[in-house]
TrEMBL record:
SUPFAM superfamilies: FAD/NAD(P)-binding domain. Residues 31-385 form the FAD dependent oxidoreductase domain. Pfam families: DAO. This is FAD-binding oxidoreductase. It comes from Flavobacterium hiemivividum. One of its GO terms (cellular component) is cytoplasm.
Length: 400
């Protein structure tokens, strides 16, 4: 399936990684990771740190799937309000999920510092705007439940929002513990580090077409008729993992993104904070290291790549119009745009861990707007499962 269309900014900015292999022999390893995007890279990181021998395969060139289309806003908020999530999974589990998302941002920063790599990680504040009176009511309810559980949050009134950020909305939730990255750059940096320091092998254009479970291992067969023997498999191919599952665990959506030409320092809002809103469909906004504005949103259910792509011009116009409602004096001009496909679950939570129909396989399915924070959580949890360390896997299990 076509994951994205248009010109993803990160791929143009960084260029393709020229260092890649294709599998042309039968090989053996401890853990085979399917998918070389940010989720697969993080899984490899935690396993390599635990001295577990890993191999990554991807049917595309490494890191060029949906990772190149990510807008890479790291927020502890899940797409589902905490008060709604409590109704779905219970108070203890909902709060634990939110806290794990918060912790994952700090974990990612620690990984970057420890490996001494560059992924353009940058701490940012965040604004969740009330688009209307109903949105403000929801934000007030959300503020109360987050404060109750000591999650970082401040409720800004309309007057405070206008005074501090020059945004004319009913109010907003504010926090100062969000972040942003260049996902494609970071993904390749993690892979390159472990290729050099952990003997990690990453095979591009290597499509696993069949998996055979044996008594104490698996055999993966590739489209080129090679085999990979491993103790365990980690399935981290994004929404394409749906091909491995009988039941439908997600809804496919398309999202649309545009990136401006470089702007002057005076063209940005205060703190260059991450911005999103309660309106549905909504937009989300961030900046880039080279002083551009990235705006995306107006998601809609995915039907097929052709229909998704035909909507791109119309979606770009709608996104730009909504942005200019927030910042009417902005001189934003579009330089890049694309659309991508992502999965979304009913409760907004990922699926992590084992599945009853797939022995010797761990799934790392970080769906939704929190894909990268979920990837960090999944990667560490799968490492713990492999080495036999207790985890909170029930929170993200397939039968929750």
């Amino acid at each position: 399936m076509d994951l994205k269309s248009g010109l993803p900014f990160w791929l143009i900015k960084n260029g393709l990684n020229k260092d890649y292999l294709t599998l042309d022999d039968n090989i053996e390893t401890e853990v085979l990771i399917i998918g070389s995007g940010i989720t697969g890279a993080l899984c490899a990181h935690f396993l390599c740190e635990a001295k577990v021998k890993c191999i990554i395969v991807d049917k595309r060139m490494a890191s060029t799937g949906s990772t190149t289309a990510s807008t890479a806003q790291l927020q502890y908020e899940i797409d589902v309000f905490l008060f709604d999530l409590i109704e779905k999974v219970g108070e203890a589990n909902a709060v634990k999920a939110y806290r794990k998302c918060l912790d994952s941002i700090y974990t990612l920063e620690k990984i970057i510092k420890k490996l001494k790599i560059n992924g353009d990680f940058d701490w940012r504040s965040s604004l969740y705007l009330a688009s209307n009176a109903a949105g403000l009511k929801d934000l007030k309810k959300e503020f109360d439940v987050r404060k109750k559980h000591q999650l970082p949050v401040t409720l800004l009134t309309q007057k405070q929002l206008k005074s501090k950020f020059n945004i004319d909305k009913k109010g907003a939730l504010y926090n100062d513990c969000s972040a942003q990255i260049d996902t494609f750059k970071l993904c390749n940096a993690i892979l390159d580090y472990h290729k050099k320091h952990s003997d990690l092998l990453v095979y591009s254009h290597t499509d696993v077409v069949k998996i055979a479970n044996k008594k104490d291992h698996i055999i993966a067969y590739t489209a080129n008729k090679n085999t990979i023997k491993a103790k365990k498999i980690v399935a981290a191919p994004g929404f394409e993992s749906q091909n491995l599952l009988k039941e439908k665990v997600m809804q496919l959506n398309s999202t649309y993104v545009l990136v401006s030409k470089p702007m002057k320092p005076t063209d940005f809002w205060k703190e260059k904070c991450l911005i999103w809103e309660t309106a549905r469909p909504y937009i989300y906004i961030r900046t880039t290291e080279d002083n551009r504005i990235m705006v995306g949103g107006f998601d809609e259910p995915f039907q097929d790549p052709e229909r998704r792509d035909k909507l791109m011009e119309k979606k770009n116009e709608a996104i730009l119009k909504r942005f200019k409602k927030l910042f009417p004096d902005s001189k934003i001009e579009i330089d890049f745009y694309w659309c991508g496909t992502f999965g979304e679950t009913k409760d907004g939570l990922p699926f992590i861990g084992e599945h009853k129909d797939h022995p010797n396989m761990y799934f790392a399915l970080g769906y939704g707007g929190n894909g990268i924070t979920f990837s960090v959580i999944a990667a560490e949890m799968i490492k713990d499962l492999y080495i036999g360390k207790p985890t909170d896997s029930d929170l993200f299990s397939f039968d929750r």
